[in-house]
Amino acid sequence: MHILIVEDEKKMAGLLKQGLEEENHSACLAFDGRTALELAASSEFDVIVLDLMIPMLDGFEVARRLRKSQNQTPILVLTARDAVTDVKKALDLGADDYLTKPFSFVELLARLRALARRGPSPRPPLLKVADLVLDPASHRIYRGDREIHLSPTEYRLLEFLMRRAGRVVSRNAIVDAVWSLEQDVEENTLDAFVSLLRSKVDKGFKTKLIQTIRGAGYSVREETES
Predict the structure, then answer these.
(1) pTM, whole model, 2 decimals?
(2) Are 49 and 4 contacting, i.e. CB atoms less than 8 angstroms apart?
(3) Which of 66, 75, 172, 183 has fewest C-beta within 10 Å?
(4) Residue 136: what are its φ and ψ, rounded to 5°?
Protein backbone atom coordinates (compact mmCIF):
# COMPACT_ATOMS: atom_id res chain seq x y z
CA MET A 1 0.00 0.00 0.00
CA HIS A 2 1.01 3.60 -0.60
CA ILE A 3 -0.19 5.61 2.41
CA LEU A 4 -0.33 9.32 3.17
CA ILE A 5 0.17 10.00 6.89
CA VAL A 6 -1.13 13.38 8.04
CA GLU A 7 0.22 13.90 11.55
CA ASP A 8 1.80 17.01 13.09
CA GLU A 9 3.59 15.18 15.92
CA LYS A 10 6.77 14.36 14.05
CA LYS A 11 7.85 11.58 16.38
CA MET A 12 4.48 9.84 15.99
CA ALA A 13 4.57 10.38 12.23
CA GLY A 14 8.05 8.90 12.01
CA LEU A 15 7.08 5.85 14.05
CA LEU A 16 4.04 5.24 11.84
CA LYS A 17 6.13 5.58 8.69
CA GLN A 18 8.80 3.23 10.05
CA GLY A 19 6.24 0.65 11.13
CA LEU A 20 4.47 0.69 7.78
CA GLU A 21 7.71 0.42 5.84
CA GLU A 22 8.74 -2.55 7.98
CA GLU A 23 5.53 -4.18 6.76
CA ASN A 24 6.60 -3.50 3.14
CA HIS A 25 4.30 -0.51 2.62
CA SER A 26 5.37 2.93 1.45
CA ALA A 27 4.41 6.06 3.36
CA CYS A 28 4.51 9.78 2.72
CA LEU A 29 4.30 12.38 5.51
CA ALA A 30 2.40 15.66 5.81
CA PHE A 31 2.61 17.72 8.99
CA ASP A 32 -0.22 20.18 8.26
CA GLY A 33 -3.52 20.31 6.41
CA ARG A 34 -2.41 22.37 3.44
CA THR A 35 0.51 20.08 2.66
CA ALA A 36 -1.82 17.08 2.98
CA LEU A 37 -4.17 18.51 0.34
CA GLU A 38 -1.27 19.32 -1.99
CA LEU A 39 0.14 15.80 -1.72
CA ALA A 40 -3.29 14.19 -2.15
CA ALA A 41 -3.82 16.24 -5.31
CA SER A 42 -0.42 15.46 -6.82
CA SER A 43 -0.03 11.75 -5.95
CA GLU A 44 -2.25 8.68 -5.70
CA PHE A 45 -2.55 6.92 -2.36
CA ASP A 46 -4.32 3.75 -1.34
CA VAL A 47 -5.30 5.17 2.06
CA ILE A 48 -4.93 8.46 3.93
CA VAL A 49 -4.26 8.31 7.69
CA LEU A 50 -5.54 11.63 9.02
CA ASP A 51 -5.11 13.25 12.43
CA LEU A 52 -7.76 15.82 13.34
CA MET A 53 -5.63 18.22 15.39
CA ILE A 54 -3.21 19.49 12.75
CA PRO A 55 -2.18 23.08 11.90
CA MET A 56 -3.28 25.36 9.05
CA LEU A 57 -6.34 23.27 8.19
CA ASP A 58 -7.64 20.77 10.72
CA GLY A 59 -8.49 17.18 9.81
CA PHE A 60 -12.21 17.90 9.48
CA GLU A 61 -11.53 20.58 6.87
CA VAL A 62 -9.03 18.36 5.04
CA ALA A 63 -11.61 15.57 4.78
CA ARG A 64 -14.28 18.02 3.60
CA ARG A 65 -12.06 19.53 0.91
CA LEU A 66 -10.88 16.14 -0.31
CA ARG A 67 -14.44 14.96 -0.83
CA LYS A 68 -15.52 18.26 -2.35
CA SER A 69 -12.69 17.94 -4.90
CA GLN A 70 -13.95 14.44 -5.78
CA ASN A 71 -10.95 12.72 -4.15
CA GLN A 72 -12.42 9.44 -2.90
CA THR A 73 -9.25 7.90 -1.43
CA PRO A 74 -10.26 6.01 1.75
CA ILE A 75 -9.60 8.06 4.89
CA LEU A 76 -8.77 6.56 8.27
CA VAL A 77 -8.97 9.16 11.04
CA LEU A 78 -6.34 8.50 13.71
CA THR A 79 -6.75 10.89 16.61
CA ALA A 80 -6.85 11.36 20.38
CA ARG A 81 -10.32 12.92 20.08
CA ASP A 82 -12.82 10.28 21.13
CA ALA A 83 -16.06 12.25 21.57
CA VAL A 84 -19.04 10.79 19.74
CA THR A 85 -19.67 14.19 18.15
CA ASP A 86 -16.15 14.16 16.64
CA VAL A 87 -16.63 10.64 15.26
CA LYS A 88 -19.98 11.58 13.72
CA LYS A 89 -18.62 14.81 12.23
CA ALA A 90 -15.61 13.07 10.67
CA LEU A 91 -17.70 10.30 9.15
CA ASP A 92 -20.31 12.76 7.89
CA LEU A 93 -17.56 14.74 6.16
CA GLY A 94 -16.37 11.65 4.29
CA ALA A 95 -13.98 9.70 6.51
CA ASP A 96 -14.29 5.92 6.11
CA ASP A 97 -12.99 4.74 9.49
CA TYR A 98 -12.05 6.19 12.88
CA LEU A 99 -9.41 4.94 15.33
CA THR A 100 -8.51 6.67 18.61
CA LYS A 101 -5.10 7.01 20.24
CA PRO A 102 -3.57 5.11 21.95
CA PHE A 103 -4.05 2.31 19.46
CA SER A 104 -2.76 -1.12 18.54
CA PHE A 105 -0.49 -1.07 15.50
CA VAL A 106 -1.79 -4.52 14.57
CA GLU A 107 -5.32 -3.14 14.53
CA LEU A 108 -4.22 -0.13 12.50
CA LEU A 109 -2.67 -2.42 9.87
CA ALA A 110 -5.83 -4.54 9.71
CA ARG A 111 -8.01 -1.48 9.20
CA LEU A 112 -5.69 -0.08 6.54
CA ARG A 113 -5.76 -3.38 4.63
CA ALA A 114 -9.55 -3.45 4.81
CA LEU A 115 -9.82 0.11 3.47
CA ALA A 116 -7.29 -0.54 0.70
CA ARG A 117 -9.23 -3.63 -0.43
CA ARG A 118 -12.41 -1.60 -0.51
CA GLY A 119 -10.78 1.06 -2.66
CA PRO A 120 -12.27 4.49 -3.31
CA SER A 121 -15.91 4.62 -2.26
CA PRO A 122 -18.33 5.09 -5.15
CA ARG A 123 -19.66 8.60 -4.93
CA PRO A 124 -23.44 8.93 -4.99
CA PRO A 125 -24.56 10.97 -8.01
CA LEU A 126 -25.46 14.58 -7.46
CA LEU A 127 -29.17 15.40 -7.48
CA LYS A 128 -29.91 18.38 -9.75
CA VAL A 129 -33.04 20.32 -10.59
CA ALA A 130 -32.31 23.48 -12.60
CA ASP A 131 -29.62 25.30 -10.58
CA LEU A 132 -30.42 23.45 -7.34
CA VAL A 133 -27.78 20.83 -6.52
CA LEU A 134 -27.82 18.37 -3.60
CA ASP A 135 -24.77 16.24 -2.85
CA PRO A 136 -25.85 13.08 -0.96
CA ALA A 137 -22.22 12.28 -0.07
CA SER A 138 -21.54 15.51 1.81
CA HIS A 139 -25.12 16.64 2.53
CA ARG A 140 -24.30 20.01 0.97
CA ILE A 141 -26.88 21.92 -1.06
CA TYR A 142 -26.38 24.79 -3.48
CA ARG A 143 -28.75 27.02 -5.42
CA GLY A 144 -26.57 28.61 -8.03
CA ASP A 145 -23.48 29.90 -6.21
CA ARG A 146 -25.27 30.12 -2.85
CA GLU A 147 -24.90 27.35 -0.29
CA ILE A 148 -28.12 26.44 1.51
CA HIS A 149 -28.07 25.29 5.12
CA LEU A 150 -30.92 23.02 6.19
CA SER A 151 -32.00 21.29 9.37
CA PRO A 152 -31.92 17.47 9.29
CA THR A 153 -35.68 17.28 8.67
CA GLU A 154 -35.56 19.93 5.95
CA TYR A 155 -32.70 18.02 4.32
CA ARG A 156 -34.62 14.71 4.36
CA LEU A 157 -37.66 16.43 2.87
CA LEU A 158 -35.69 18.09 0.07
CA GLU A 159 -33.70 14.95 -0.77
CA PHE A 160 -36.89 12.85 -0.87
CA LEU A 161 -38.54 15.30 -3.29
CA MET A 162 -35.42 15.74 -5.45
CA ARG A 163 -35.06 11.98 -5.88
CA ARG A 164 -38.54 12.13 -7.39
CA ALA A 165 -37.99 15.35 -9.35
CA GLY A 166 -40.73 16.12 -11.84
CA ARG A 167 -43.18 13.74 -10.17
CA VAL A 168 -46.04 14.60 -7.85
CA VAL A 169 -45.48 13.04 -4.43
CA SER A 170 -48.47 12.56 -2.15
CA ARG A 171 -48.57 14.09 1.30
CA ASN A 172 -48.88 10.65 2.91
CA ALA A 173 -45.82 9.34 1.07
CA ILE A 174 -43.77 12.35 2.17
CA VAL A 175 -44.84 12.10 5.81
CA ASP A 176 -44.14 8.35 5.90
CA ALA A 177 -40.65 8.84 4.45
CA VAL A 178 -39.54 11.96 6.33
CA TRP A 179 -41.16 11.33 9.70
CA SER A 180 -41.05 7.52 9.66
CA LEU A 181 -39.96 7.32 13.30
CA GLU A 182 -42.65 9.66 14.58
CA GLN A 183 -45.87 8.28 16.01
CA ASP A 184 -48.02 11.31 15.30
CA VAL A 185 -47.46 14.12 12.81
CA GLU A 186 -49.77 17.10 12.95
CA GLU A 187 -51.75 17.87 9.80
CA ASN A 188 -49.95 21.17 9.22
CA THR A 189 -46.42 19.93 10.06
CA LEU A 190 -45.60 19.09 6.44
CA ASP A 191 -46.94 22.44 5.24
CA ALA A 192 -44.81 24.25 7.82
CA PHE A 193 -41.64 22.46 6.71
CA VAL A 194 -42.40 23.05 3.03
CA SER A 195 -42.78 26.75 3.86
CA LEU A 196 -39.42 26.75 5.65
CA LEU A 197 -37.81 24.94 2.73
CA ARG A 198 -39.22 27.44 0.24
CA SER A 199 -37.80 30.32 2.28
CA LYS A 200 -34.33 28.81 1.90
CA VAL A 201 -34.47 27.27 -1.58
CA ASP A 202 -36.75 29.55 -3.60
CA LYS A 203 -36.62 32.95 -1.90
CA GLY A 204 -34.86 35.49 -4.10
CA PHE A 205 -35.06 33.35 -7.25
CA LYS A 206 -37.46 34.00 -10.12
CA THR A 207 -37.93 30.31 -10.82
CA LYS A 208 -39.71 28.53 -7.97
CA LEU A 209 -38.76 24.86 -7.74
CA ILE A 210 -40.92 23.61 -4.87
CA GLN A 211 -44.42 23.27 -6.25
CA THR A 212 -47.73 22.66 -4.49
CA ILE A 213 -50.02 20.41 -6.50
CA ARG A 214 -53.45 21.15 -5.05
CA GLY A 215 -55.27 18.06 -3.86
CA ALA A 216 -52.32 15.82 -4.71
CA GLY A 217 -49.13 16.76 -2.88
CA TYR A 218 -45.82 18.41 -3.71
CA SER A 219 -43.24 18.32 -6.47
CA VAL A 220 -39.77 19.69 -7.15
CA ARG A 221 -39.52 20.74 -10.78
CA GLU A 222 -38.39 23.62 -12.95
CA GLU A 223 -41.33 25.82 -13.71
CA THR A 224 -42.76 29.09 -12.47
CA GLU A 225 -45.49 28.61 -9.91
CA SER A 226 -48.81 29.99 -11.04
Answers:
(1) 0.55
(2) yes
(3) 183
(4) -65, -25
